[in-house]
Amino acid sequence: MNAAGSASAGRSPATGSSRTLPKLAVAGAPLLEVDDLRVHFSIESGTVRAVDGVSFRLENGEALGIAGESGCGKTTTALSLVGLLPANGRIDSGAIRLYGIDLVPKSENALRRYRWREISIVFQGAMNALNPVQRVVDQITEPIIERLGVPARTARKRAGDLLELVGIPRKRGGSYPHELSGGMRQRAMIAMALACDPAIVIGDEPTTALDVMVQAQILELLEDLRHKLGLSLILITHDLSVIAETCDRVLVMYAGRVAEEGSVDEVFRSPRHPYTQKLLSAFPNIRTDKRTLAVIPGAPPDLRHPPPGCRFAPRCDFAMAVCTEVVPPETAFAGVRVACHLYPAGSDGIPVTKPTADAIGATAPLVEAPLDEPPLDIANG
Amino acid sequence: MTTQPLTEPGTGRGPSPAAGETIVSLEGLEVHFPIRTGFLDTLLRRQHGVIRAVDGIDLTLRRGEVLALVGESGSGKTTTGRVVVKLTRQTGGTVSLDGRDVSTLWGVGRLRAYRRRIQLIFQDPYETLNPKHTIREFVAEPLVVNGIGSAAEREERVLAALESAGLRPAADFAARYPHELSGGQRQRVVIAGALVMNPEIIVADEPVSMLDVSIRTELLRLMLDLRAERGLTYLFITHDLSLAWVIADRIAVMYLGKIMEIGPAEQVIRSPHNPYTQALVSVSPTPEPPTPGQRAKRTILVGETPDAAHVPPGCRFHPRCPYAFDRCRVEEPPLFDVGGGQSAACWLAEGGRSLPVLPPRPEAATIAGSDAPSATTAGGSPA
Questions:
Q1: Residues of B in contact with A265 (CB under 8 A)
Q2: Considering the entire predicted model, what is its pTM?
Q3: What's the domain count of chain A?
Q4: CATH number for the domain harbouring residue A153
């Protein structure tokens, strides 16, 4: 995998070294493989099964988007990957294999070898994640010295290189976080995540608090870094448009489970799972003439007492008797993976009961017609 | 946790209020905040310049319409909203309600009648609601403060407001505390708190940006249904141009304290006449993977919005504008009428002209490969 030429050739602009795999790496193993991950949180009123049987893979150089609404388990999944779960959370079962090395049973000490150096994470609020009383360049230098064991001077130079790489002039590195704009701070966070030259960078809502224009700049930067450094990206977001913009594959989560997974082109153009369909049509799309938004009635389930069967069933327009009783297995076809009883094993992607146009189009028009124009054609379908 | 029945599922829009007369009008509105850097400055009323949060805008709100005020952070959209509800004092210009100048109307007592007619909804339902107060207490508060009605009448109005906001059974919700409600329900409570005064105008500052998309639509539908039922008028403040396009009749785009473009929603999105609007439309996120052609057409502006203490001379957008020419650097363009009720503050729009065609971004075209056939029409109307 290391010898996969193109990916490692452009790596490490600052150190110029090519990637050496951890000693325990299994030859031929995929970059990252998450297998039936289950994460539980203990709270006063019971156990929250935040992630309940999630599996996925990340190949070298790939960008995977994990989408879902609050409480779907996407951030918990991300935190599990870097071993940063809060104190009341634990991985109940499952495996997280990096180059074939299972990280789940590793001690905190052993994990340190991998966190930041192999997998790093960019958090949402750059304001809260940066130390307000330390210069930005020092905040990047410190972990380089500590984790890579290089002399201070080399580390400082690398920190400067990283800042330039993410579009912050080297001399601005001497600023304190409050002296930088929101977009600049998020760039600094990205530089920090790149400090130890990781193979995988996870972005947890990396652009959520930013203005659209700054968001466009940051997404362009991530795209650019991915090509330059051969990074693999995991982008966690509630905003499907961010994933449409930057990712190769998308994993849609609902209430702790995978609803649908596949290439961005396939999933966005022909969503199979009823939740994916609804979620996609709940976003306005300025490039179409459909000024309609879908309503998803109800609320996500309480994960202390999730409903049996499919967790989306209570809100689903196509729910059948089986949906409320049996957990839908994941079915794979045409490069996608769907957990829905409409697509039983061996399905070719045609739902067993044809969803009526009426039901899909439950995107009742939100707006009938603009004021000064003839009514728009807002036919559903 | 339950499905809230919507007041009227189906069309959100009532009778078209196209001919709505002007209800609120802002003329030459300015809000300049003095910069004082320390205690001594404050004491001596010494200032080091001004932040020109709102820098001379004319805006009318017509009865029954949804006017979206769209802009990035620092554009002055929130300050404008606060002036309309009279929470922030303007430093110049006038505010009129029903043609009557209310610019000098200040003081809690004198504003009482005004505030009954105009209510504000904030962004964050988690911060708006006091965790120690029941929903009943929150919704009844404006009635109590204004000394309206007897206890029984208040209760009746509170329940009616909760019901209108889709919280049923209202009596059950009234007895609850905020922590017992979901995010969507909390925002409904905030709406009920505004409705209880029977206002005519609601200024909604990012009312749905904290909510999950699946909940967002229901709230927007509720707001539009309420307009149909009660003839409400909305000033809808948002950073999200796509959302504005879906729910508003008219869109006003703000940048650094000025209105750059205003007009019917569809028209502003389809044929923007101001380069800033055009750039915003081109980068507005959509839930579909962009084609190489669309990528190439995108105008990602360099840099960030300057701070409002250092407004560039001439057209304030010129340092970031891909079309800027000499005149833009020295002379600020007024809003030019470009037809169909749309106007744009850009020298290129003078006489109602359209924006010229920009060449596609070279780097984007390279990434996308050579197949960028439609890339020559820079972000314009899709015919």
A1: 289
A2: 0.84
A3: 2
A4: 3.40.50.300
